[in-house]
Design a protein that fits this description.
single chain; Rossmann fold; alpha/beta; five-stranded parallel beta sheet
Amino acid sequence: MKILLVRLREIGDVVFTTPAVHALRSHFPTAHLTYIVEPAAEPVVRHNPHIDELVIAPRARGIRGLLADLALGRRLRAGRYDLAIDFHGGPRASLITWLSGAPRRVGYAIGGRAWMYTDRVARPRALRARHSVENQWDLLAPLGIDAPDRAAFPVEMRADADAARDVDARLAHAGVTAAHRIVVMHVSAGNPFRRWPLEHFVVVAHALASRDPRRRIVVTSGPSEREAAAHVVSATNAVACGDFSLAELRALLDRAALYIGGDSGPLHIAATTSVPIVGLYGPTLPERSAPWRDPQIATASIDVGALPCRPCDQRVCAPGDFRCLTGIQPQQVIDAAEQLLTGPC
């Protein structure tokens, strides 16, 4: 049996499909699983043991992009897949799924595109307090696969040995040894709706470093926000180790005692490890995107609680002041971090 999986776009969204990928491998142990992703998320599944083949689908605009997708469709059709599952549901993903020619195609019942699937699964448009892993898992119901279990099917991203060696060397060069306790603090996010104020990160970094001389704060960020990371490093005693690729970030987290960051791709990479996590949730809900892993692994999810405008679709901040994020105070994060670093009193 040949199964085609499609999940385009964001890093975190691809992470959220990995429990379903594992479940498909368990349900169809001899199947050939092919996964289509865009380049940015490829490292998430590069070493996934449940996937036999990766297809990278770069995104191009206009007629060039359409021609590339049609060529990809011809390649997939020649592969004679028996089943295709579209975990995305966007226009491009649904087109690729349909072009595959798989006789059975599973996707969401979305207006204007549902006809491209043979098996359609309802997906309410309203933002729900339901985890994204469960939303993805709904697509497995037509195949007779039972409800998900966090402990049995956590999110996954396997470590890269070369990246781990590079990270070890960079930490050693920065004076960080095995005797130190590393706190990874990710200070950027994909959009302003998930970006906690930089000065709040500075306060937290100062507080955590001052309470234990063994601690080393390693600040990370996306490539577009190097200045934000540099600001936090220069304002504190944080460790500067340069940019980390996704594979290197995954390796760094294996060395860490704690991860602190907003609801973005790096937090979901952290969730694939056993590192304790302090997650900061603004317009999103922890119920929807908190770490999906064994509940025994320590996690703290911090938000401002109920607001009339929360959750939102992250297109326009109705109040205009991003109060769902700015309302999270540094002391809340410090207290949660200390609890996870030191354990119960």
